[in-house]
From TrEMBL:
<dbReference type="InterPro" id="IPR006171">
    <property type="entry name" value="TOPRIM_dom"/>
</dbReference>
<keyword id="KW-0233">DNA recombination</keyword>
<dbReference type="Pfam" id="PF21175">
    <property type="entry name" value="RecR_C"/>
</dbReference>
<protein>
    <recommendedName>
        <fullName>Recombination protein RecR</fullName>
    </recommendedName>
</protein>
<dbReference type="InterPro" id="IPR015967">
    <property type="entry name" value="Rcmb_RecR_Znf"/>
</dbReference>
<comment type="function">
    <text>May play a role in DNA repair. It seems to be involved in an RecBC-independent recombinational process of DNA repair. It may act with RecF and RecO.</text>
</comment>
<keyword id="KW-0479">Metal-binding</keyword>
<dbReference type="InterPro" id="IPR034137">
    <property type="entry name" value="TOPRIM_RecR"/>
</dbReference>
<dbReference type="Pfam" id="PF13662">
    <property type="entry name" value="Toprim_4"/>
</dbReference>
<comment type="similarity">
    <text>Belongs to the RecR family.</text>
</comment>
<dbReference type="Pfam" id="PF02132">
    <property type="entry name" value="RecR_ZnF"/>
</dbReference>
<keyword id="KW-0863">Zinc-finger</keyword>
<dbReference type="InterPro" id="IPR000093">
    <property type="entry name" value="DNA_Rcmb_RecR"/>
</dbReference>
<keyword id="KW-0862">Zinc</keyword>
<keyword id="KW-0227">DNA damage</keyword>
<feature type="zinc finger region" description="C4-type">
    <location>
        <begin position="58"/>
        <end position="73"/>
    </location>
</feature>
<keyword id="KW-0234">DNA repair</keyword>
Length: 205
């Protein structure tokens, strides 16, 4: 792809670094920005800079937040004894959109994947086990995607907390095997949360 401007080329190269964005799509986006009033581009750049420099991670659940504790963890109407284990903020948003879950979350920040060099030590698993060991949690709901990596992560955590005797469950398999939660429709995901099954039962399938 030949560019008439080095500035244009640099902008396209940076935008194309985003996941799912190729050079042609990046070019279309950059040209669109050039056609907009300058203040629109300033709003976008300022929003991205503020996000990068000011965003925090909730000290309790590890969700992305503007404050030390996220709005969900600060909400007195949520049940702190039921915790849903998810991979990242996209899963929190997907479950919240169903309005069927009133507990708290624990965001792992990924899944165990030896191929990608991600082990238990790279995830927020120790802090979860610590919560369970302190008796803060009565039920843990595994809501990771039904992939090999998701199932491996679920099982690893289950073995770490098994001795504490808390209730463990997993979302019902209304979500197709291999599907990511963020792509599930709200009705299916909501029913999967409400119709969750004991985790031990899922091991027999």
């Amino acid at each position: 792809m030949d560019f008439s401007s080095k500035l244009l080329e640099n902008a396209v190269n940076e935008v194309s670094r985003l996941p799912g964005i190729g050079k042609r799509t990046a070019l279309r986006l950059v040209l669109h920005l050039l056609k907009q009033p300058k203040e629109h581009t300033s709003y976008l750049s300022n929003a991205l800079l503020s996000l990068r420099n000011e965003v925090k991670t909730c000290e309790k659940c590890h969700n992305i937040s503007d404050t030390v504790l996220c709005d969900i963890c600060q909400n007195p109407k949520r049940n702190p004894e039921i915790v849903c284990v998810v991979e990242d903020i996209r899963d929190v948003m997907a479950i919240e959109s169903t309005a069927q879950f009133q507990g708290l979350y624990h965001v792992l920040g990924g899944k165990i994947s030896p191929i990608e060099g991600i082990g238990p030590q790279n995830l927020q698993i120790d802090s979860l086990v610590d919560k369970v060991s302190k008796g803060e949690i009565k039920e843990l709901i595994f809501a990771l995607s039904s992939t090999m990596e998701g199932d491996t992560t679920n099982f690893y955590i289950f073995k770490q907390i098994e001795k504490f005797g808390i209730t463990t469950s997993t979302i019902a398999r209304g979500i197709a095997v291999g599907d990511e939660l963020e792509y599930a429709d709200e009705v299916t995901l909501g029913r999967s949360i409400l119709n969750r099954i004991p985790f031990e039962n899922s091991l027999r399938n």
